[in-house]
Amino acid sequence: MDNRAPTSVRLASAHLPRLSAEYVRLSFGTWKPSGASPVGGEPEDDQQRRSAVRADGAATAARRRLPVKFRVERDVLAEAVAWAARSLPARPPVPVLAGLLLTAQDGSLALSGFDYEVSARVELEADVEEAGTVLVSGRLLNDISRNLPNRPVEISTDGMRVSVVCGSSRFTLPTLPVDEYPALPQMPTATGTVPGDVFASAVSQAAVAAGRDDTLPVLTGVRVEINGSGITLAATDRYRFAVRELLWKPEQDDINAVALVPAKTLQDIAKSLGSGDHVSIALSTGGAGEGLIGFEGAGRRTTTRLLEGEFPKFRSIFPTEFSAVAAVQTQPFLEALKRVSLVAERNTPVRLNFEQGVLTLEAGSGDDAQASERVEADLEGDDISIAFNPGYLEEGLKAIDAAYAQLSFTTPTKPALLTGKPAVDAEPDEAYQYLIMPVRLSG
């Protein structure tokens, strides 16, 4: 047996035969990708957009420009502006959507942003001298607020302009027409709550497998399935599939609902709200609010439109019987994978050879650069050689967040199941499962 040190890395001196690789996608039976657009579709032109979001003219008229004057701490303002402005479009379809709506009243300040897909609203304490509403450039206010000196900030209106004063710093900004700004979507009725840290971790684990191909919008989302006291998050790009199950506190014990949420939006929401004690999830299960999901926590509230289309049925593709099961310490595995991948050009797989007591990672072939490294592994079952996209495997190892990674195999050409566990002899944590397709090698 090769007695090289388990952590050694070497460039292979012998020329291995050049291998060709074929990436294999997951098969979902009769499921076919659809080019579905977000629920409700996009209005055909800006005029339709305006009429769609300003159907309630009375609500819009009630927010016409009023004198505003308030004071707030710099750090509090900067954090709130950064969060509310994060989803403002760089090239808005209508100019007012580049604005941030500031509403001051009764000792509080609310900042709101909206891009027809995602809305954001945050409330904070403020010393309000004159209550009112004003609309200013969100990008400009964000740049200004995070660069102000550490002093209280006073914001006031003077006709068609807004004054921002902090210490000896003074800025004057033009306003945007408040009466043209669309009303934010109403939050659906609260469905239940989940601890903020659990929510953030679960979304991160599931969304890592979401697709990034906008021509297949259904696969760019995370499926949120609510069944009583349990939530299942699922995402796939057809080359891997991540499923995360978690518990929460529903408002109704018998609730059942499903939503397909844009993955990038859900990740942003989870990161920003996950620091709070709890996140409230508001999902419409029918009626006027259908096609919308809302999240609230730590004084922040956000909604997003849902994706439509049929998400692939996935439970049947997860194997339950295996010919080999390997357990490897996650961190040494991950570090070895990163090193060996240095010689793997784009779309070049990394080969994993599992034998009793050892895992050998290899990359490169033919006249190309080559590398290999060995790490300790506990193997039950038959020896197996299998190849994976190194990026997909690395993301899965990072996502399991466990001391040991367990890889369960059927054959070298069938999906492998990656789970985490706290110790080599412990049971795997099946609350998170990461299914990854191998790469077929020939030659």
What report would you give on this structure?
With 443 residues, the protein is of the alpha+beta class. Helices cover 17% and strands 38% of the residues. It contains eight helices and 30 strands. The strands form five sheets. A nine-stranded antiparallel β-sheet has the order 8-4-5-6-20-19-18-12-16. It starts with 8 loop residues before the first strand and ends with a strand.
What is the topological layout?
Elements: E1 9-10, E2 20-23, H1 46-53, H2 57-61, E3 69-72, H3 74-84, E4 99-105, E5 108-114, E6 118-125, E7 127-130, E8 132-137, H4 138-145, E9 153-158, E10 161-166, E11 169-174, E12 192-195, H5 196-207, E13 221-227, E14 230-236, E15 240-247, E16 249-250, E17 256-262, H6 263-273, E18 278-283, E19 292-297, E20 300-305, E21 324-329, H7 330-340, E22 350-355, E23 358-363, E24 371-376, E25 378-381, E26 384-388, H8 390-400, E27 404-409, E28 416-421, E29 429-436, E30 439-442
Antiparallel strand pairs: 1-24, 2-30, 3-7, 3-9, 4-5, 4-8, 5-6, 6-20, 9-10, 10-11, 12-16, 12-18, 13-14, 13-17, 14-15, 15-29, 18-19, 19-20, 21-25, 21-27, 22-23, 22-26, 23-24, 27-28, 28-29
Helix pairs in contact: 3-4, 5-6, 7-8
- Write down the CATH class of the largest domain: Alpha Beta
Largest sheet: 9 strands, antiparallel
The shape is: elongated
Question: Could you say which structural class the secondary elements and strand pairing correspond to?
Answer: alpha+beta
Strand order of the largest sheet: 8-4-5-6-20-19-18-12-16
Helix content: 10-25%
**Which radius of gyration do the C-alpha atoms yield?**
26 Å
Write down the overall mean pLDDT. Answer: 87
- Kindly report the CATH topology of the largest domain: DNA Polymerase III, Chain A, domain 2
SS field, number of helical segments = 8
The CATH homologous superfamily of the largest domain: DNA Polymerase III, subunit A, domain 2
Low-pLDDT sequence parts: 1-17, 35-63
Alpha-carbon distance between the termini? 25 Å
The share of residues in extended strands comes to 35-45%
The CATH level-2 architecture of the largest domain is identified as: Roll
Count the E strands. Answer: 30
How many structural domains in the coordinates?
A: 3
Family: Belongs to the beta sliding clamp family.
Organism: Kitasatospora cheerisanensis KCTC 2395
Protein name: Beta sliding clamp
Subcellular location: Cytoplasm
